[in-house]
Every structure is written in C-alpha cells, then in structure tokens.
Amino acid sequence: MFSTWQHFATIYLAEIAFISSVIYCVHRAQKNRIYSAFWQLLLFRLASDSLIFAAGCARQLQLIDRLHFSHLYFYTYWFSFVIDSVLVLRVLHEMFRHAMRSIPGVQKLGRPVFFWAVAISVILAGAAGISPHSSGMGLIFSAAQTLGRSESVLALCMVTFLAFASHTLGVSFRSRIFGVTFGLAMVATANLVNAALLSHLFNLTVAANLGLEIVNFAAMALWAGYFLQPEPARRLVTMPVTSPLMRWNEVAQTLGNPSGQVAVSYPPSFMNDVFDLVENVMGPASWPQKAVGASRSPGPMAS
After folding, report:
1. Residue whose C-alpha is closest to residue 191's, from 228, 227, 223, 147
2. Could you tell me which CATH class the domain 4-232 is placed in?
3. Which long-range contacts (CB under 8 A, 24 or more apart) does 73-81 make?
C-alpha cells in the first residue's frame, strides 16, 4: 500500500510529466502564439503543480512543520484553482473566436455575449461565497467551487455547440479547436460528477478523486495527440444566400460596423470660382440695370 507521501508524489509527478509533454507538443507544432490562452493555462498549471510538489518535498524533508504545510497547500491549491478557472474561461473564448473565424459578423456579435456569460458566472461565484458566518477560508472555498462549476457548464456548452455546428463552421473533429475544447469538457464532466458524488456519498472520496485524476491525465494525453499529428486543412464554408446564418452574419456586421463617413472640405477659392461661373453665364453684375436703361422709351422733351 502506498503511503500518503507516495500517493501525493506519484499524482503530482505524473501531472507535471503530462503537462510538460503537452507543452512540448504545442511548442513543437508552433501553436503557442496562435493558442496563447491555452499556452498560458498549461504554463500556469505546470508552475502551480511544481510549487505544491516542492512544498510537499519540503514537508517530507522536515524543512517545514505540518501546520505551515497545511496552510501553504490550502491557499496555493485554492488560489490556483480560481486562477485556473479564469484561464479556462479565456481558453474557451479563444476557441470560440477560432471556431467562428469564417463568420466574422457572428463572431464579433458573440464576443459581448460570451463576456456577459463569464461576468455573470464570476458574480455568482463571488455572491455564493458570501454569507454572514463565512470566514476567509470558507469564502475562498465557496467562490472557487461555484466558479469551477460555472466554467464546467460553459465548457460543456462549448463542446456541444462545436459538435453540432462543426460542419457549418468548417471545423473538423480532428481540428485542434475541437480537441482542446473536448479535453476541457472531459475534465468539466468529471468535476461535476465528482462534486455530485462527494455531496451525497462521502465514502467514495478516494475513488472519486482517483477517477478525476484519470480523466485529467486522459485529457492531457488527448491534447498531446492532437498537437502531435498534423491538423487537417479547414474546409471552406459554403451556404445558400437564403441561409438564416448568412442573414445573421449580415445583420451582425451591420450592427458592429457603422456606415462609413466622408469628410468634405472646400478649398479657399471655391466660392470665388462659383461667383466667376455665375458671372460668365449671366453676364456682368450691372447687366440687368444696363439692359433696362437701354430698353426704356424716351420721356417727353422739355419745352
């Protein structure tokens, strides 16, 4: 049987190894700039896992006592959990932008919708942790759990959207957009199932956590596989002119892009040119008076 330290070290060393392999695959495919939010998520997970593992090693070597290690582990884990959830939301937004690249109008209109969905999730996460009797640790714990559930729901909605709209958007199931989103959805499903089990069956804590770790490793292996193999070329989006999606795209472009405006300026001599033109057409300015005087009949002669 593994001791507590051996179980702890095995889990975190495996996570560090899997994340490092995904980072290598993403860098090898030269996609770290294209998928910058996903790249930042991987680097943050590697840093947070390395920090927690270093704290465990310090505890094992008796460099810190048990109380300090407990506080360090708790705050590092839950603060990392909150930041990780925010980064996952950024990754989902990044995958949404790449998926909707062929329909720029709907893509631009969907940005504020996605932003408000994330904002509402964060507000609910903060409100859920506030109670009259909540302490600092309870506040962090409640907010992190609510934010994690919100991120999991958005991940499941995103992968469902890609599954049904992949043909319309020209995104293949072998695309890295779908692979990254599907991996996040796998972890999101495991988190929701794990939370549901632990809220009713406390005796399944060890089995539920082990299953969560296995799904987490499977998701990272999936990401590594997607970035190792060449990505198929994206299909051109073809749709009839009567398609509702095409109309939505036109409406979105119209709403997001106001009509152009032209600045009209007149040269200083513009009005002088107008006066010269009128004078050339109508004659000199005294022409009406001269013409009237010439056509007037002579008056009676003075006697």
Report:
1. 147
2. mainly alpha
3. 74/137, 75/140, 76/48, 76/51, 76/52, 77/52, 78/140, 78/141, 78/144, 79/140, 80/44, 80/48, 80/52, 81/144, 81/148
Who contacts 126 (Cβ-Cβ below 8 Å, separation ≥6)? 143
**pTM of the predicted structure, to 2 decimals:** 0.72
Residue 181: name the closest of 192, 202, 166, 200 by CA.
166
Structure tokens at 131: 């109670």
Q: What is the domain partition of the chain in residue ranges?
A: 4-232
Taking the C-alpha atoms of residue 72 and residue 54, their distance in angstroms, rounded to an integer, is: 11
Amino acid in position 20 = S
Q: Which residue has the tokens 């958007």?
A: 169
| Cα-trace Rg, the chain | 35
Look at the block and give the residue holding tokens 């964060």. Answer: 122
Residue-wise pLDDT tens digits, 202-247: 666 677 788 889 999 999 999 999 999 888 776 655 555 455 555 5
| 219 touches 186 (CB < 8 A) | yes
Cα-Cα end-to-end distance for the chain: 149
Q: What is the DSSP letter of 298?
A: P
* Residue burial 251-269, b: 16+ Cβ < 10 Å; e: rest: ebeeeeeeeeeeeeeeeee
Phi-psi region of 271 (alpha: psi -120 to 50; beta: other; left: phi over 0): alpha
